[in-house]
Structure formats: structure tokens, C-alpha cells
Amino acid sequence: MTAPLVLTLPGWQNSGPDHWQSLWEDTHGYQRVEQHDWMRPLRGDWIARLEDVLLSRNINTDGPAVLAAHSLGCLLVAAWAAHSRNTRLVKGALLVAPPDVDREEVRQMLTSWAPVPMHKLPFPSVVMASSRDPYCRPERAREFAAAWGSDYIDAGPRGHLNSDSGLGDWPQAHDSLLVLMNGSQPH
Amino acid sequence: MAKIFCIANQKGGVGKTTTTVNLAAGLAKVGQRVLMIDLDPQGNATMGSGVDKRKLELTVYDVLLESASIAEARVTSQKLIDGGCSYDVLGANRELAGAEVELVEVERREKRLKLALAAVADNYDFVLIDCPPSLSMLTLNGLCCAHGVIVPMQCEYFALEGLTDLVNTIKQVHANLNKELAIIGLLRVMFDPRITLQQNVSDQLKTHFGDKVFDTVIPRNVRLAEAPSYGLPGVVFDPASKGAQAFVAFAEEMVQRIKGM
Q1: Are A51 and A43 in contact (CB under 8 A)?
Q2: Among A73, B11, B215, B226, which residue's CB has the most CB atoms within a 10 Å radius?
């Protein structure tokens, strides 16, 4: 069996060329789930799009996908998994810097996303969070990880873990992704 | 208590949304209290009613997910008020596509709209629901709460294509989910009497379906086609046009029809 396909799920306003998601796509051929509207993200629209992309693949020949999500893309994974009947199409998920949309100032920007889904994910997952993220306190990120049944990795005081964080192609996160691709829960 | 109608046809591009917004405006023009519900994630009926789908804070999606009531989510358009044909709009945008995934495990998922409508049914004489062309959970929600279905049809060679599927769907919903549901009538739209084939098909429809075919015929009319780009129903955009006048006549025919219901 070939390596599972990795689908990258950017957050609000998409990921630019220097973002680790874009660099991984360039280097490893991972595929981005393109949303209809990156600037005004609608939860239902994004969920439907992820479902469509996963259903368009042939699981018998392609195998389940691994998701590499950043920011709002993490909440997309949690919201989709809480409802979809097709979660078997996903083998694992790397969830980087989930935002706390239950905070008033974030909720106002992303109206349709609150509350954060707190259901256990039906596949292995890892939450990587910064200890100094303007959109989510680390204690809250740990709560998300506990609710989702994810392993938790502290990525240090590095902002929102986006292109501004100077992560390059971020080998540390990619190692966690590789473990998920190999089919085991990292520790 | 409002009479609730779905405007549906499983064949796309037949003038379903044009019928919905113009019938809504026509009914408002003849003094009826109207709620228009857009159940299509494309949101064309929303935009065609003078409501910007990109600026909506709450939509029919929130109602289906039970995070808002219809009273909270409905809006009115200043353009419609200015045009003297104001009706309430429960709008839609792409967000609504997610309801197909999010409602899949929910109990009584096909009755969410019916339950929500019960709270506001006394506020209206008519509720018109613009259904998507596919048979989906959204269409099913529309059919479950409706008293009847209005089917817009073009008088073309393949006019009956799709009607068989729709009739079968309506029979199933009638048998299992909504005993009140019936086809109210077929509405001939985009009609051009100069085209012999259209006249022939129109005659055949009358022969086969009798009084299930509405007397009013909506002519092909460029002003009806232009109106959506101005975010207005044709009835408001150009009230003097033949298309607008036909829809007002259709509204009057509908008012007469529901007296017998």
C-alpha cells in the first residue's frame, strides 16, 4: 500500500506561500482542500466541502486520508467528525493551533463557528499548540485535546504557528504527521 | 394559518427561483402576508429578493440546526419595501450545504423546518419555499412542511423529464411523512406562443393534467430575466412588464385556489 494521501486544511484567510502547509505541499505533494470563500468562512460550507473531497476519493484504492489542519481547519475537522457518517475515510489528523472561537473577540470574527465541538474524534490525532498564541490560551488548547482524545504537544512560545512564526517547513510537526501516516497514535 | 407551498422541479433551470420570488412579490402586491424561504445553498432566491446573502448573520441553516428561530433569522429588504411588495425572507447561503452532513444523524431531521414554521405560521397567509433541484435532506424538509407543490415547467419537448421523479418523490413523502402534500398545479413559464412546439406542449399539458395546470401562463420576458441582476423580483423591477403582470395574475389565481383548500 502506498503512503496515505495527506490533505492540508488551512484556516481563515488561507495559508500563504511561506506557511508550513504550503511548503509541505510543494515538497511532498500533499493536497489542499480549497474552500469557496477563505475570507468569510462558513462552517457548513467548509464541512460540506471537506465531505465532498473525501467522498470523491476511492477508499479501496487510495486508502483513508490523513489531515494536516491549521487554526480554523482544526475546528473544521472536529465539526465534520462530530456529524459525518464517513469518518472511516480519515486515518488521522494533525491539529495545529486550534483557535478558541468561544472567546468573544474571536467569536465576533467567526460567527458561525462557536461553540467549539468537544466530541472525541474517531481517529488518532495530535494537537500542537503554542504557549503564546493570541487566539487561544494553552490551557484551553489542552482542553480541546482532552475532549478530542488527542495527544498534546507544546510547540513553545511561537505565536499562532503560522508563517509569522518562522517555522519554515517545520520538521518537528512533520515528524508527528509521519507517525499518524504510519497508523499509530504518537506519544 | 399560513398555506405553505414548495416551488420544486427536479429538472434544473426551469425558472423555479424566478417563480418563487415573483409569486412572493405578486402575493405581497395583492395584500397577502408572505414569508419566502430559500432552501437552496446557492442563495439565488435570497439575492433575488434584495437581500445580500453574504451579509446575513442568521439563515435557514441556523433554523435547521435549531440554533435560531425563524423570528430571529427572517429579514426584510428595503428594496422590496420601497417597491411596495414587501415580504419576509428566510435566506440561505453556502453554509446551508453543511446541513446535509450535520443533520444526517439527527432524529426527525426531515421535520426541522416544519417544527420551526409552526411558531410563525399565524404571521403569514403564504409561505413559499424555493427547493433545490436535487432530492436532498433540504428538499425533504420543504416537502414535509408543505400543503402543496407548485411545479414550474417550460413547454418544451422534454418538459415532462424530471416530472416523473418529482411525482414519485411526492407520493413517497405523502405516504410516509406528510399526508397533506399534493401537487397544487403546473405553472407554464417562459412561454412563447409564437413557437408552435410550445403551444402544442401547452395543449398536451392541459389535456393530460386538466385543472392541475394553472390558467395563468408566464410569458418569456426579458425584464424578468434582467431583474435578478438588480437584486429584485421582476414584479418590483418593472411592474408594467408583461412578465410582472402575469405573476400578479398568478398570485390572484393562487389566492382564489387556496380558498378551496
Answers
A1: no
A2: A73
